[in-house]
Specification:
Helix content: 10-25%
CATH topology of the largest domain: Rossmann fold
Radius of gyration: 20 Å
Largest sheet: 8 strands, mixed
Strand order of the largest sheet: 2-1-6-5-7-8-9-10
CATH superfamily of the largest domain: ANL, N-terminal domain
Shape: globular
Order of helices and strands: EEHEEHEHEHEHEHEEEEEEEEEHEEHEE
Number of strands: 21
CATH architecture of the largest domain: 3-Layer(aba) Sandwich
Number of helices: 8
C-alpha cells in the first residue's frame, strides 16, 4: 500500500493499525454508547479478514484504487473500510484531517476512487458555493455512512459525477459494511454483504452478524417492513426528545444555521451533544443546543474555540 497523510507520502508502518493488522492482532474498539453504556469490543483477526474481503468484493477495490478518508481513527470504519483494505489490495490510502475550507479542493486534487462521507458533513457543506465545484467523476463508489441518509443526499452526490453512490450500514459490534443500498435508508435481505446475515427481531429491530461471529447483535434500529424490503427508522434513544416531537441532531444543525451560524455540525456521543459551528457566540445559533432539548437537564456547557472561526459547544446531558 501507499500512504499519504495530509498530502505527504508516509511510511505505512508508521500507523499502529497497519502494524497490528500485519501482526494478526485483534482489534479493540470502544462503542459509542448508543445502545447502552460504552464498552470495549474486541474483534479477532479472523473476523477482520472476513469483513475486509467482503468490502473489497462489494466495492470492487483493486491495486489502483485511491481511498480517501477523513474518518475518525477511533471509529471502526476507518480500519475495516480504509486501512485494512489498502493493506490487502496494495492501493493508495489518503488520510486527511477534515477542514471544511479545503475539503472540496483536496477531493478535486486527489481524485479518489472511493470515499465515505458522513451525513452531517454533507448537510453542512452541500449548500455552500464551494461545494458546486466538487468533481467526483473519478469516484467509482461514494458511500454515505455513519448515520441515516438525509433526503436527496444520494442524488445530490450523483450529480457531481460519482459512478455509484450508496448508503451503507454497520456498527462497532458488527463491523461495516453489513449491507449497502442505492436507496436512502431502504434495504433488503439481498443488500446484506457476503458472509453477513441480517434478520428482524420480534420487537421489529434489526439483527445482524458476520458468519465468523457466534452471536447475533440487536442494533435497536427500528425496522419498518419485511426482510424483502424494509426501511430503517433509527434508535429512539439516539434521538433528542421533547414532549411531543423527536429532534434529531440534523434538526439542531438547521436551527443553528437558521439563527446565524454559517456552518454547523451536531453529533451525539454518549451523554454528550456537541455542536460545531462557525459564527459568533453572540448569535442565536447556540440556542439550538442549549434551549431546544427541554427534557434534558443541562449539567455543564463548555465552549472551545478551535480556531478563529470554528467553535465547539459541548452540552453534557442526562434524562430527567
Amino acid at each position: 500500500m501507499r500512504l499519504y497523510v495530509n498530502g505527504k507520502q508516509t511510511d505505512p508502518l508508521s500507523l499502529p493499525d497497519v502494524r497490528d493488522y500485519l501482526d494478526k492482532k485483534p482489534l479493540s474498539v470502544m462503542t459509542s454508547g448508543t445502545t447502552g453504556n460504552p464498552k470495549t469490543v474486541e474483534h479477532p483477526h479472523e473476523l477482520l479478514k472476513q469483513v475486509v474481503k467482503s468490502n473489497i468484493e462489494t466495492f470492487g477495490h483493486h491495486k489502483d484504487s485511491k481511498l480517501f478518508s477523513i474518518l475518525n481513527a477511533k471509529g471502526i470504519g476507518y480500519q475495516t473500510m480504509m486501512v485494512y483494505v489498502a493493506i490487502e489490495t496494495g492501493c493508495d490510502l489518503y488520510i486527511e484531517d477534515f477542514d471544511f475550507r479545503t475539503y472540496v479542493d483536496r477531493l478535486n486534487t486527489v481524485k479518489p476512487t472511493f470515499m465515505v462521507i458522513a451525513p452531517n458533513i454533507w448537510r453542512a457543506l452541500h449548500k455552500r458555493s464551494k461545494w458546486q465545484e466538487l468533481d467526483l467523476s473519478s469516484m467509482e463508489t461514494c458511500v454515505m455512512g455513519g448515520d441515516f441518509t438525509p433526503s436527496g443526499a444520494l442524488d445530490e452526490l450523483r450529480s457531481h459525477g460519482a459512478r455509484k453512490v450508496v448508503n451503507a450500514y454497520g456498527s462497532t459490534e458488527v463491523p461495516p459494511c453489513v449491507m449497502v443500498s442505492e436507496e436512502e435508508n431502504v434495504y433488503s435481505i439481498d443488500a446484506a454483504c457476503t458472509n453477513c446475515m441480517i434478520a428482524i427481531s420480534d420487537r421489529n429491530t434489526l439483527l445482524c452478524k458476520w458468519s465468523a461471529q457466534e452471536e447475533w447483535w440487536d442494533s435497536e434500529d427500528l425496522v419498518e417492513g419485511e426482510l424483502n424490503v424494509f426501511t430503517l427508522k433509527g434508535r429512539e434513544r439516539n434521538m433528542f426528545k421533547q414532549d411531543i416531537v423527536r429532534i434529531y441532531p440534523e434538526d439542531i444543525e438547521k436551527i443553528a444555521t437558521d439563527n446565524g451560524a454559517e456552518i454547523s455540525l451536531c453529533r451525539q456521543q454518549g451523554n454528550y451533544a456537541i455542536l460545531y459551528f462557525v459564527g459568533s457566540m453572540n448569535t442565536e445559533a447556540v440556542n439550538a443546543l442549549l434551549h431546544y432539548v427541554p427534557r434534558f437537564r443541562m449539567k455543564e456547557v463548555i465552549e472551545i474555540k478551535v480556531d478563529n472561526n470554528l467553535r465547539k459547544i459541548i452540552r453534557n446531558q442526562e434524562l430527567e
